[in-house]
Amino acid sequence: MEVNTKVDKLTETKADAIVVCCFEETTSLDNNTAAIDEAMGGVISQLINTGSIKSKLNEITILHTLGKLPADRVAIVGMGKADKLTLDRVRGATGEVCRLLQKKNLYTIAIPTLGAGMADITPGDAAQAITEGALLGTYLFRQHQTKKAEYDELKELTIIEPDTGKIPGVSRGCDKGRILAEATNLARDMVNEPSNYMTPSRMVAVANKLVEDGRLEISVLEADQMAELGMGALLGVARGSQEPPKFIILRYQGTESKETDIALVGKGITFDSGGISIKPSEGMGEMKGDMAGGAAVIAAMGALARLKPKINVTAFIPTTENMPSGKAIKPGDILTAINGKTIEIITTDAEGRLILADALGYAVKLGVKRIVDVATLTGACRVALGDIYSGAFGNNQELTSKVIEAGIQAGELIWQMPMHEDYQTQLESDVADIKNAGNRWGGAITGAQFLAEFIDDTPWVHIDIAGTFLSDKERKYLVKGGTGVPVRTLVNFVLSLAN
Ligand code: BES
Ligand code: MN
Ligand code: ZN
Predict the structure, then answer these.
(1) Is the pLDDT score of 27 beyond 90?
(2) Residue 103 catalytic?
């Protein structure tokens, strides 16, 4: 879909549909809606007065204009109570309305800067949220469907702004929103691709494609180089698979300095069968998305290369399958990670923390200043927080708060979970330095405590997205399948550090 901005009057714009909004418990219309209402002979206010339109959040009414306007239809989207308005509600309402119009074969849409001037929302902010909502909410994954679909992809969204003075801000917001949404949709594509397509080698191919525009550098470690570096934990997980593991390193350099201001680390398990500690077959297909953390990190790097902040970022994505076979690691085995720590395997299904151990240890060894890792790490985090909040764990409150704040801006909610040395007793091993799993209780926390063993004193935040990497329904700007969480958080976070 194309998104652009135009100086125009909404009442004079030609499109398949024009979008306006209305608020609950008020009959007073904003300027845009009032102008459309007048051109339509007062039908909108009449529907509101008679209670046919209640303006509940994301309630959508579509009217035919029957020649009263150059546009064919008007879609009125409810925004809920005016005093509850947030940027994420603008993003969500736009997602819902654009998705509905797409399904109705209405392919060109004109929309004003919904919400601008209210709740501290600038026209630029609104344009960004609208662009994100439209591109995310109409996302389709049809790569493997050969049958003709009932509707096509939305073609064009035009953000209409009558005031020329506001256009620079609006088009800047629109550009930023496009970059963020396209990156999020790239991460969704990677999560949605089945594991026979999205292998570790294909993860490398996706990363390589982002490098083509010249702003990123890539290096990929092969198994023999991992062995030289002492990545025994990652290699242990990879041993059961026929697919060669890859360790992707992407570098974005925004300053003269050679230092890495921030390392982004993402779990890249392209399929998690559980290994010898095999998972139950029900729902196992979801585990094609166990590389969602790695996908988010790769996609965020692509966005950063387009946004060009003055900061240096290095991404580390260890990627492999976790499979059972005659060569696979077994419970009771002991692996040695890059920092020399030995790990007793309690379950081969706690593989994410093993590959992250080597990736985090490697980043620490290179002397990066800060680390954020993203992983579909624990079912326990999904049980604790459901599919709304991701979990955050950290050793540095300032950094953790910054990540959470970046998430709020993105509409990607993150809840801080505790860490404490007393959880560490769960990970004490009789035969090695540490076990790779504790007991049933507090599983998301012991997962994070395990990772902390490979961090030393580097300021670090771990984001567990096991609950949020997938959506089981259409909701706001989310569709069924991969959510692309937390791509926009990562980008916002890096931008906030650069300023
Ligand atoms: N990839 C899974 C976690 C997961 C579960 C992600 C559900 C998304 C949805 C991870 O590798 C795993 O298997 N974790 C185990 C750890 C346990 C064995 C200590 C889990 O959560 O059960
Ligand atoms: Mn697992
Ligand atoms: Zn996993």
Answers:
(1) no
(2) no
